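Subject: sequence -> structure tokens, single chain

Hey, anyone have a minute? Need the predicted structure for the following. Not urgent.
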Amino acid sequence: MKLDDSAAMVTGGASGLGEATARQLRQRFPDLHITLVDMNDVRGPEVAADIHATFVHADITSEDEVIAAVQTARRVCPLRAVVNCAGGGSSQRTIGRDGSYESAHPLALFDRVLRLNAVGTFNVIRLAASAISTNEPDPEGARGAIVNTASVAGLEGQIGQAAYAAGKAAIIGMTLPIARDLAAVGVRVNTIAPGTFDTPPMRAVAPELFASLGASVPFPKRLGAPVEFASLAIELLTNGYINGATIRLDGAIRMAPK
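Reply:
Had a minute. Here:
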């Protein structure tokens, strides 16, 4: 699929994988109209200004705010590309050490993490795809493409990752049925399941832990670079025959229990 005379929207575009994707989209497609969607009102406008994009503050779990973001993205030309990078997690075991009800994993925390990852991603897909479905199709009938971000935790979550793993597993699980739903209007949907990547949250851990995380990757023995995620995301946007797939991007790592 060509992205000439088109618009793209990247959620979570103020940092990490989303920022890297937005920057590489600008490098690859100088005339592309890019909208960054994030809740970081400091970093978001800075990145947008740097790459000549538009920043929209929006909570991906809000219907009204996502509609406003989609409307902004398609204001100048048809929205054809969406990359969902917004999400987040937590770490807490299912029960506490003392066996009390009070020390069990808070239900509100589980709900919040699941809502952010699964519900938020679906909210963006359903609203963005509605807009994309109104585009004029290309000669193959394609109107646009959507790329989601899951995690290898959605396939082999570690101790304390019940909420995060559930949210990312939901993204993996919805990919194929949504791709089948949207086939009728020529919109492809794919998902990337990254392993351990060199993003701001990873940089916040202790140096020895950061080094050990890289060493645990079979090959190459390092954390993934956000630019490598961005490269795959753009391939999934433009390669017209990849659809309904979840692709691991992890250096062949398989997560241990902890």
